[in-house]
Amino acid sequence: MSATTVPATATSPLRRRALGVVVAVxxxxxxxxxxxxxxxxxxxxxxxxxxxxIGAGAIVxxxxxxxxxxxxxxxxxxxxARRLARPLWISLAVVVTVLSFLPLTGVEADGGAKVxxxxxxxxxxxxLVALLPRRR
Length: 136
Prior knowledge:
66% of the residues lie in helices and 3% in strands. It is mostly helical and 136 residues long. It has a two-stranded antiparallel ribbon with strand order 1-2. It is globular. The two termini are 36 Å apart.
C-alpha cells in the first residue's frame, strides 16, 4: 500500500476575513434574536431624543459596517505598517470595543437590552480578532 499525501489547503486571507464578517453579523443577529424571544424590550432613549426601538435591521447594519471598517483598517495597517499591523490592529480593536460601551451607559433602556446590545459589541470584536488578522 502506498500512502498518499493530501496537500494542506490553507484558507485564503480573503475567505477567512469574509468569514469573520459573516460570523460577526450572524452572531449579533443571533444574540438580538435570543433577546427578542426572551422578551427583551429593545427600546432605547437617548437624552433629548425620541425613543428608538433597535431592530434586526439596525443590528445587521451596524455589525456589518463595523466589521467592514475593521477589515479596511487592518488592510491599511498591513499596507503601511506590515510588521506592526497585527498587534496595532488588535490593540485598536480592543480600544474601540471598550469605547463602544460608552453610549450604552448614557441611554435609558432596560437591563436586558443593555446586556444583549453589549454582548453584540463583544461578539463583533471576538469574531474579527479571531478571523481577520493573518495567522502567525
